Amino acid sequence: MAVQSLHSEETSQIWAQVLDSVRGRLGSPQALDTWFKPIIPRAISTQLVELEVPNAFFVDWIHEHHLTALRQSLAEVLGAAPEVRFSALEPVAPALPAEPRPNPAATATVEPRAARLWLDSQLSPRHTFESFVVGSSNRFTHAACMAVAQNPGHSYNPLFIFGGSGLGKTHLLHAIGHQVMCSRPGLRVYYVPAERFTNEMIYAIQHAQTLAFRNKYRNVDLLLIDDIQFLAGKESTQEEFFYTFNALRDAHKQIVVTADKPPKDIPMLEARLTSRFNQGLVTDIKQPDLETRIAILRNRCDQEGADPRLSEDVLLLIADRVRTNIRDLEGCLVRLMAVAALTGQEISLELAEEVLQHYVHPEADQLTPERIVALVSEQFSIKVEALFGQRRTRSVALPRQVAMYLLRQLTELSLVDIGRIFGGRDHSTVIYACEKVGTMVATDSEFAGRINGLISTLAAG
User: Fold this and answer.
1) For position 108, what pLDDT does the model report?
2) To pair with 358 at 20 to 30 A between CA atoms, which of 12, 145, 317, 449?
3) Which CATH architecture has domain 290-356?
4) pTM
5) Quick one: DSSP state of residue 65?
6) What is residue 280's DSSP assignment?
């Protein structure tokens, strides 16, 4: 399908079909009326869809809440996965330097270059360094990201950030992009999830557009790739990314990558890619401590314009219960404020407790070491005393390592504390046990199912 002209009847018909498809994927008709009806399709093809929206906030909101539904609907109607590109009538993004507001009469046809670059970059205006909360769990990684943003292509190239879901990796990727675009206007910045990189490459191969694909990714100044573990096992995509990586690095262009594991622990990732990643700086983000979680909640309260009288006890309760995922932490707070606003209730500890029931498993305090060890003992048919003893046969060592792994994952005990529980073992023994079990979970689906079953049993109380 060729790119359609701005006012063509066919473009309008295709967009109407997309809206019908989107309607079935949204939670309410109000969402369609609010966020999709104001959109004007500028061009539609199987390769690229250009959409005009009222302002940059629309871009942010659609990216954060409705982009998946939009992409699925486009794929259903077009039979392809096109790139989606937005332009805004009021395109000045919060992360860009202040500039004179454009003449409203001219905004439909004249688009500032800075705003065009921002829209092309695929960056979310919400995710900047200013809105990122720094704590002991992410301080080093945050400093590394700041160094990269201040001197792209020279400091820590590539930068590889790993950590669990919802800990802020994507936020830092976007923040680097914004900082570079603010300090060095005109540099080409592009953010892309690894899944989209793969889909675009497949499309390019199918439609003999490989050269255009390569030019797109090898002519940027800063490439931000999210969730690189998605490339694992995809040999052709890994090969293409390998050559793209080399081309950018040889040209002193900056590459920043995120993943859920360090390079060496990503299964089916080619050794040559692992080696390239390890040539730069590999750094992790850990689960935030209590103080950082409270600071994150306060920061989100400021963003949402929450009542300043919001009780510190409520924030402490949420931060104490939701420990492992910042998205869940903020989501719980937003839901609490929404429930209070819609029902006319004051935000109290009782209301917070009610909302938390839908967000978290039983309190972590119920997951005592004794309970975890007892369940492992039962599941592996071995006496608890044997787990604490000195025997190293596989029938004892593996259950002991599983118990150490679960204690590390499900409690806030330190490595030293866990080692002390198991007969005063050294912390390095605990690290080895956690790494071994983690590797087995990643590579053995049957074993992973067994571990997930243990976790589910513990969570169910």
Assistant:
1) 31
2) 449
3) Orthogonal Bundle (1.10)
4) 0.56
5) I
6) S
Distances (CA, A) of 167 to 49, 159, 253, 407: 31, 17, 26, 20
Closest CA to 403 of 385, 417, 416, 418: 418
- Beta strands per DSSP E along 99-220: 159-163, 189-193
Structure tokens at 50: 């250009």
The CATH number of 9-120 is 3.30.300.180
What CA–CA distance (Å, rounded) separates 414 from 164? 18
Question: In the block, which residue shows the tokens 């004179």?
Answer: 100
Q: Please name the residue that has the structure tokens 């262009």.
A: 253
Minimal CA–CA distance to 334: which of 65, 110, 133? Answer: 65
Residue pair 204/117 in contact by the 8 Å Cβ criterion: no
**Three-state DSSP state, 226:** strand
Residue-wise pLDDT for 296-342, tens only, equals 888 888 776 665 556 778 888 888 778 778 888 888 888 888 888 78
For residue 189, give the nearest of 93, 284, 277 by alpha carbon: 93
Look up the CATH superfamily of 139-285. P-loop containing nucleotide triphosphate hydrolases (3.40.50.300)
Question: HSE on the CB side for 347, CA within 13 Å?
Answer: 25
Regarding the domain delimited by 366-459, which CATH topology (the fold level of the hierarchy) does it fall under? Chromosomal Replication Initiator Protein Dnaa; Chain: A; (1.10.1750)
| Residues carrying CATH 1.10.8.60, the chain | 290-356
How many whole angstroms from its chain centre is CA 222? 18
